[in-house]
Specification:
Number of helices: 3
Radius of gyration: 19 Å
Structural class: alpha+beta
Helix content: 25-40%
Largest sheet: 5 strands, antiparallel
Mean pLDDT: 84
Strand order of the largest sheet: 2-3-1-5-4
Length: about 160
């Protein structure tokens, strides 16, 4: 069986997505894919989400931060971006998504938008609410572990 000629093959756009959640969030690729499909279906409807054909190609998540590459059909990148903006939780873990950029190839998406910051979270002890607590620090922001949850804080909260 022959391949389709290049001008008849489907064209794709690749969205580089940054994920941020609490440090104890347990998110995997399957959960993220399900949330993306659900958001696209709710926003665009059945026919619109089928046209956009969103698929997670790469996914990494750990220590509350992660990144992914989401594939969308050419001409549906803005709809894909809007559907990603509708994802606010994954498996009952609140999450924030940010589209870093859109490119025409996976390689360009990786080189331009992913893996550049390389920030490694540090854990340290802080005094928060008149008690010693552990906190995870990322880029000047602190996620303080309280009774079974986290609270977001900055260095100014401890001065």
């Amino acid at each position: 069986m022959k391949h389709l000629p290049k001008h008849l093959r489907p064209r794709w756009r690749y969205l580089a997505v940054e994920l941020e959640a609490w440090p104890d969030a347990d998110i995997d690729r399957r959960d993220f894919q399900r949330s993306v499909w659900f958001a696209a279906q709710n926003l665009l409807g059945d026919a619109g989400s089928a046209d956009a054909d969103l698929k997670v190609l790469q996914f990494e998540f750990g220590e509350g931060t992660g990144e992914a590459i989401v594939r969308a059909r050419h001409g549906h990148a803005q709809q894909a971006r809007a559907a990603l903006a509708c994802v606010d939780e994954i498996r009952n873990d609140p999450v924030g998504l940010r589209v870093r950029g859109i490119s025409g190839t996976v390689r360009a998406c990786e080189e331009k938008y992913l893996g550049a910051d390389g920030q490694i979270p540090d854990e340290r002890k802080v005094v928060f609410g008149d008690a010693d607590r552990s906190a995870v620090e990322r880029d000047g922001l602190l996620d303080v572990r309280t009774d079974g949850a986290f609270a977001g804080a900055t260095e100014l909260d401890f001065e």
